[in-house]
Amino acid sequence: GTLSGQFSIGGMTCAACVNSVEGILRDLPGVERAVVALATSLGEVEYDPAVISKEDIVNAIEDAGFEGAFVQ
Ligand code: 9UX
Predict the structure, then answer these.
(1) What's the gap between Cα 38 and its chain centre?
(2) Which fold has domain 3-70?
(3) Is 13 in the pocket of ligand 1 (CB under 6 A)?
């Protein structure tokens, strides 16, 4: 089964940042769906916790140069 997690993504300043973060998240093994919003600096990620953890997702956001944090 999948979980739905909300992540804050700091440092996105334009629409290309949003596309870039969405692409990075969608390419991660275990991520089924990712939608990122510029206005709220939030990303909704559906992921399989048997494959990827929320910490892995935060690390991928950070590795891309943004500030990532798990919200709920
Ligand atoms: Mo826009 Mo984001 O020119 O890293 S792509 S600020």
Answers:
(1) 12
(2) Alpha-Beta Plaits (3.30.70)
(3) yes
